[in-house]
Amino acid sequence: MSRFLILNGPNLNMLGLRDAGFYGVKTLEEVNAEIRVVASRIGVEVEFYQSNHEGALVDCIQEARDRVDGLVVNGGALTHYGLTLKDALIDCRKPFIEVHLSNPLARDEWRRHSVLSDIARGQIAGFGWRSYTAALEILAALVEEESQ
Ligand code: DQA
């Protein structure tokens, strides 16, 4: 069975308390529960990690590398400048989809550039928690197809 790491960066532990207009009302635990529902429906395993520290995210990616088939990554603000996170994702050599709850392109100027998008398989943004579940479904299908 394929296994995926759902990785969340800084401030995503505060979901539910952050601006609901951008991020919705669910907590991270509630978002993860929605992801678990989809994972069991499509028959894949998921693991979750969130940290407010870039180095901890790097440690997690390095450690998960041999165990997972791909990643769903919401880097939070690190998306826009986190080159250490980027290097870890490059070195990990597993496909990942960059996700965002909000649509960063429709927000502040500094959110319009992502340092991750050129190494991601793709981006899904602007659909709230559904960005994660859509990403998992697509990534799982790609990994399955490419293992044939
Ligand atoms: C975010 C968008 C980022 O610009 C922001 O810094 C976040 C969350 C999103 O999911 O919409 O923390 O990645």
User: Termini separation (Å)?
Assistant: 14 Å
Identify the strand order in the major beta sheet.
Answer: 2-1-3-4-5
**Biggest sheet details:** 5 strands, parallel
Outline type: globular
- The proportion of residues forming helix, as a percent range, comes to 25-40%
Outline the low-pLDDT stretches.
none
In N-to-C order, the SSE pattern is EHHEHEHEEH
Number of strands: 5
Helix/strand class: alpha/beta
- The total count of helices amounts to 5
Kindly provide the radius of gyration, computed on alpha-carbon positions and rounded to a whole number of angstroms.
14 Å
Mean model confidence by pLDDT: 97
Strand content: 15-25%
Which ligands appear in the coordinates? 1,3,4-trihydroxy-5-OXO-cyclohexanecarboxylic acid
In short:
This protein has 148 residues and is an alpha/beta fold. The protein has helices at 20-23, 28-42, 54-64, 83-92, 130-146, and strands at residues 3-8, 45-50, 70-74, 96-100, 122-125. The protein is built from 5 helices and 5 strands.
